[in-house]
């Protein structure tokens, strides 16, 4: 069990998310071996938190496919498959490209104002937790006006888990994402749905490649 995890307790409302981010990063970086049992009491002691946020974090990690909760054994680390990551990001790049292209023509001025507000929030924070939440909202808003329900359902499934957490995993990701978000916003503001869609697709592909390289 790794003893190098650390966590600053700041906001109890997001404590399980902070715990989840620490554990997710440790799993993806190989601090925990595939098949290793994550013992709640040891994690709670290592992170200096109660067992409640540990339990909540492990349930979220199970939904992401990073751990498996087994009766009488607790949480077991699942093998991390690089091919799974490649598949997720390639699918996201293609499906979100289509959704953005369908959505952008119908985005309202209010939508664009909200996009700009979210973009400024990401630019003005150094807190990865704040960035992640604004980043999720930014990407969701880009496809808000897409009316293809099945397409949106597929995208939502792909969003479950670590794809949205790369700012906590990759050095320099926040700064680079901000630059790419600015380009995306300019294309959206110009009502250029084709360019907007292509930029979003390239943004997702670049992030996926960076994540794979960091884990290789």
TrEMBL record:
Xref: SUPFAM superfamilies: GntR ligand-binding domain-like (SSF48008), Winged helix' DNA-binding domain (SSF46785)
CDD domains recorded: WHTH_GntR
Alphabetical list of Gene3D superfamilies matching this protein: GntR ligand-binding domain-like, Winged helix-like DNA-binding domain superfamily/Winged helix DNA-binding domain
Residue ranges occupied by any HTH gntR-type domain in the UniProt entry: 13-80
PROSITE patterns: HTH_GNTR
Keyword S-adenosyl-L-methionine: no
Alphabetical list of InterPro entries matching this protein: GntR_C, TF_FadR/GntR_C, Tscrpt_reg_HTH_GntR, WH-like_DNA-bd_sf, WH_DNA-bd_sf
Record Pfam families: FCD, GntR
Entry keyword set: DNA-binding, Transcription, Transcription regulation
Protein's UniProt keywords contain Nucleotide-binding: no
Name of the featured protein: GntR family transcriptional regulator
Organism expressing this protein natively: Halobacillus shinanisalinarum
Highest classification ranks of the organism: Bacteria, Bacillati, Bacillota, Bacilli, Bacillales
């Amino acid at each position: 069990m790794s003893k190098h995890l650390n966590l600053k307790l700041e906001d109890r409302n997001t404590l399980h998310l902070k715990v989840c981010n620490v554990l997710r990063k440790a799993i993806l970086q190989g601090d925990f071996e595939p098949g290793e049992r994550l013992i709640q009491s040891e994690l709670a002691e290592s992170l200096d938190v109660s067992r409640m946020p540990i339990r909540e974090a492990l349930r979220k990690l199970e939904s992401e496919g990073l751990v498996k909760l087994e009766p009488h054994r607790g949480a077991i680390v699942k093998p991390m498959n690089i091919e799974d990551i490649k598949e997720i990001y390639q699918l996201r790049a293609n499906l979100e490209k289509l959704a953005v292209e369908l959505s952008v023509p119908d985005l309202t001025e209010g939508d664009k104002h909200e996009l700009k507000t979210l973009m400024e929030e990401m630019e003005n924070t150094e807190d990865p937790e704040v960035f992640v939440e604004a980043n999720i909202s930014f990407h969701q808003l880009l496809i808000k006006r897409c009316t293809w329900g099945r397409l949106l359902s597929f995208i939502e499934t792909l969003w479950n888990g670590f794809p949205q957490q790369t700012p906590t995993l990759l050095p320099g990701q926040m700064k680079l994402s901000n630059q790419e978000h600015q380009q995306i916003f300019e294309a959206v503001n110009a009502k250029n749905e084709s360019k907007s869609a292509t930029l979003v697709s390239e943004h997702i592909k670049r992030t996926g490649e960076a994540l794979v390289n960091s884990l290789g």
